[in-house]
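Methods, example record. To illustrate the input and output format used throughout this study, we show the complete record for DUF3800 domain-containing protein. The sequence lines were provided to the predictor; the line carrying structure tokens was produced by it.
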Amino acid sequence: MESQLVAYIDESSAMRSQNRQDYMVCAAIIDSVNSDAIRTELIPLRLPGQIKLHWTDERESRRRTIVKTLSTLDSMQAVVTHRSEISKDRTLPKEMPRKYVF
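The corresponding predicted structure is encoded as:
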């Protein structure tokens, strides 16, 4: 298999006060040749009936377990962008790039 970088991206938005809205985008970047190995590490973290891991669905103790596992994955890098402002629009701000090329 040819080496190719792949990014899995998620976003989050939360109102912190009347004057502040936090908006974050995170990209987990992996080499495609490591996909199967990473999947093998992450699948056992799912609880029975879960189809995916999702931070807001997890208890604090499970979050710690997930973070501990993610921190052992040498072949994954995470990139996080953060912005604070008031916005009614939960989509990606116009001045932030819509396409990432690696």
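Annotations derived from this record:
The first strand starts at residue 5 and ends at 17.
The longest helix spans residues 60-71.
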